[in-house]
Amino acid sequence: LSHFMPAHDPSDPRRHSDVRLQLKPLVSEDNTDWMAMLSFFFGFLGIMLKVRAFTLNSLMFCIASLVNLKASEDWKQNLSAISIVMMGLIITYKKELTGV
After folding, report:
1. How far apart are the C-alpha atoms of 31 and 16, rounded to whole Å?
2. 8 Å CB contact between 61 and 42
3. Rounded distance, CA 45 to CA 30, Å?
C-alpha cells in the first residue's frame, strides 16, 4: 500500500489523513421470490380443491412475480409457478366445460 501512496508532499492538495476505508453494505442473501411462492401455493390449492378463485389468485401472483423479475435471477422458481398456474387454469375450467 505504501508504494501506491507516495510520501506526503506539501504541495499535494490531497489529505491522506481523511482517507477512509469503504466497506460494502451488508445485503441479505434471501433469493426467495415470495410472489412466485404464493403463486405456487395458490395454484396447488386451486388444483387440489378445484376452486377457480385460488387459481385466479395464483395467476395474479405469477404475473406480479414476472413483472418484478430481474434479468440476473434464476427462472426455475418462476417456471414451476407458471406451470402450476397453467395446470390449475386447465383443470378448473375443464371442470366447468365438461360439467363433471
Report:
1. 40
2. yes
3. 25
Interhelix angle 76-98/34-49, rounded to 10 degrees, is 30
Instruction: In whole angstroms, give the CA distance from residue 58 to residue 88.
Output: 9
Place of cell 440476473: 72
Alpha-carbon radius of gyration of the chain: 27
Q: Which three-class secondary structure string do you get for the chain?
A: CCCCCCCCCCCCCCCHHHCCCCCCCCCCCCCCCHHHHHHHHHHHHHHHHCCHHHHHHHHHHHHHHHHCCCCCCCCHHHHHHHHHHHHHHHHHHHHHHHCC
pLDDT along the chain (100 residues), means of 10: 58 72 74 86 93 94 90 80 93 74
The answer for residues whose C-beta is within 8 angstroms of residue 98's C-beta and 6 or more apart is none
